[in-house]
Amino acid sequence: MYQYSKPKPIPIKLIDSAGFDLRQKAFQFVSANPNTTGAERGSEEQQGFGALAEIVVRKYLGMPEINPSNRPSLGYDFLLPTGIKVDVKCRGGTLPFKEEYLSNDDIPREAKHNFWPRQMNDDRLDVDIYLMTHLKTPSKKTRKLPGTKRQKWILYICGWVSKERVKREGVYLPRGSLTEQGKTWFTYQKHDIEFYNKNLNGLQSLDELLKIDQSDVNADIARKGDLNLTSVDAIRITYDLIGRGILNNKHLEYIKKKANITNEIKPILSSNQYFHLLEWFKEEGLITDKELERAAQILKKEPYTGI
Prior knowledge:
Number of helices: 9
Structural class: alpha+beta
């Protein structure tokens, strides 16, 4: 039986000859068995990263190597000895996995994981739990599998979660939705579900995965996690709902206290656009310098400083 612990990433280095061998196997597997069906399927690179994560997990759990001829289902990658169906999820990036990251307002943002809604809502994809991983790769120009023996690749084992809890608590974002990444934003090109790392079940070691049984899955299905938003976005949304007359300052103070955030949060739009609007209101005679001075205490204009 599994014993809950807070998620803490487990790094597995995929370097030297041993790591290269695993990367070579992932490359060979995807080359021989590309997934060319299904809407919004993963790219060849994404399929390669997913295969590598599964190959690594199988190796460290003492399981047989990945084999397309005896894969039990499209919905999951392997069965645990307890009968639990596991799907390994992997996201690749050039940075190591961090549980929190700083933006340029020095306020931490919590890390998240991503799911495809079409998989989550397809009952034919029979799976009990997802094992969430993150693959640190070389630069985008040089990270094509299998890479080289000298390159540094690291797989982070982040934790696990039941499919049913992701369906219940994850936040669905339609294609084109905006999300924050580091010091900038991007829009999702595909439909997405965000689920935050802090809400995963942690693993002290990878072989602890073998202890998960149906009672653990049921307990996770019933578990109530925290917000699947960054604390910063929760405050931004609260500000917006106050402006729309739905919430009030009591809710803002509550969320700020719960998140332990006292700094001013940077807006999504440029602060220059805020000042432009305020100056227009002043020209219309609706505000005075007092409001502009107050805004200057909270927001900072961003002058052009050259390329």
